[in-house]
Write a structure and sequence with these properties.
Elements (H helix, E strand, L loop, with lengths): L43 H6 L3 E4 L2 H12 L7 E2 L2 H10 L14 E3 L9 E6 L2 E12 L3 H9 L7 H8 L4 E9 L12 H7 L6 E4 L7 H9 L11 E4 L13 H15 L4 E3 L11 H13 L4 E4 L20 H13 L2 E4 L3 E4 L3 E4 H7 L3 E2 L3 H10 L10 H9 L2
Length: 403
């Protein structure tokens, strides 16, 4: 796949963050902080010439820098300095009070890397961005994890990532975008997605990090009937295809399942795009982060599932968050965020009436069919027939081909 240069709203050299053009701002949702940041430069060679050090970006850094430079993390314009980092960790807000779920940092173990240096982040031979480093600090990772993940236990995948994958130091820095990272799945910018969305209806975002099965599809299409969603609303299915938990299905395989399902369902009220985001499994705080990102992509509503972005202890199997913690925090911060959370229905499949809510099934005494994720994977590996009420045939085919 060839390197992707991102579309420009102006010609000439970018000397400061720009607000996307009125065409690109077609979606009715206002970006977080009031403007959609665009840090891409047209003069790539001039930007590269300012860099004195070249570094290979990690997968997580590639996701973060892509969302910074294209406005997915608006209103921030670079990796967070110490004051901004501390503010987000302690207050879940930027220093000016703008709500922000999780810190976005550049990490390193390099003792010699110093403020004032401009580095060139690369993906192999492809220049991705320059970062003009502003400060260097030693984070209190225990405090960070307790505040952001609710625990400092290494059994939590986010805490484990901070402790074992991230470097000793964090550094703040102003980002200039050069090229989008090359990926096996297309990741349109917030401006590009906004241009394609209707500007006169509600846009309901559905976040997922797993293949979409029947229950998921029923959930996000029925969300359009929620009283919180205006008439004629649409769904933006916006899966994260970056790094996530170690035992999750790889992003490239997930992408294939979404593409075949998009063709199979061909629903005009369902839009599909892909997000280069690395999951933290931070539960309630990550729900806020997802709402901010989808707001920048033009969404007015966001579906909050049970135990969203939740995780279990790798030792005890106990949940780190309550089933409704993410929903409760999203509701509490909804007005401040300017995004309306839509609670996900607890749907079950019944022999008599197909998918209904769990409450309705119990009230009517309907026969509920169940298939656990563990049993599904066993059947998948064993070549057994998967019930069509549970999974789409096209999705099952992709999963088997890539097992």
């Amino acid at each position: 796949m060839a390197p992707q240069r991102l579309s420009r709203s102006n010609s000439g050299v970018a000397t400061a963050p720009r607000v996307a053009s009125s065409l690109m701002m077609a979606a009715k949702q206002v970006p977080h902080g009031g403007k959609l940041v665009d840090l891409m430069t047209d003069d790539v060679e001039a930007a590269i010439a300012k860099a004195t050090i070249e570094l290979q970006a990690t997968d997580r850094q590639l996701c973060d820098v892509q969302l910074i430079m294209t406005g997915g993390f608006s209103p921030i314009e670079g990796f967070m300095d110490e004051a901004t980092y501390n503010s987000v960790v302690e207050n879940m807000a930027l220093p000016d009070g703008t709500i922000f779920g999780l810190p976005v940092i550049f990490d390193t173990d390099d003792e010699d890397l110093s403020p004032g240096t401009t580095i060139l982040l690369k993906q192999g031979d492809l220049p991705i961005a320059t970062v003009e480093l502003t400060d260097k600090y030693t984070p209190n990772k225990v405090a960070e994890c307790k505040a952001c993940y609710g625990t400092s236990e290494l059994e939590h995948p986010g805490t484990l990532m901070v402790a074992t994958e991230r470097g000793k130091y964090y550094m703040g820095g102003k980002v200039t975008g050069l090229n989008a990272p090359v990926r096996d799945f297309p990741c349109k910018t917030p401006a590009e997605v906004r241009e394609e969305l209707p500007d006169d209806v509600d846009v309901v975002a559905f976040q997922c990090r797993n293949p979409v099965h029947r229950a998921h599809y029923e959930l996000f299409t029925r969300a359009l009937d929620d009283e919180l969603v205006g008439e004629g609303g649409i769904v933006l299915v916006h899966p994260t295809c970056g790094p996530t938990q170690a035992d999750d299905i790889p992003g490239t395989v997930r992408y294939k399942t979404y593409e075949v399902l998009k063709e199979e369902t061909a629903n005009p009220r369902v839009f599909w795009e892909y997000l280069p985001y690395s999951m933290h499994m931070a539960g309630p705080r990550e729900a806020i982060q997802h709402m901010i990102i989808r707001k920048n992509f033009g969404c007015t509503h966001f579906i909050i599932g049970r135990d969203m972005a939740g995780s279990k202890s790798s030792i005890t199997g106990e949940d780190y968050y309550g089933a409704f913690d993410a929903q409760d925090l999203a509701k509490a911060k909804s007005e401040e965020l300017g995004v309306t959370p839509v609670p996900s229905l607890n749907l079950v499949f019944t022999e008599e009436e197909g998918y209904v809510t769990d409450t309705e099934a119990k009230e009517k005494g309907l026969n509920i069919q169940k298939l656990s994720g563990t049993k599904f994977r066993q059947m998948l590996r064993g070549g057994e027939d998967i019930p069509e009420w549970f999974a789409f045939k096209s999705v099952v085919s992709v999963l088997r081909d890539n097992a």
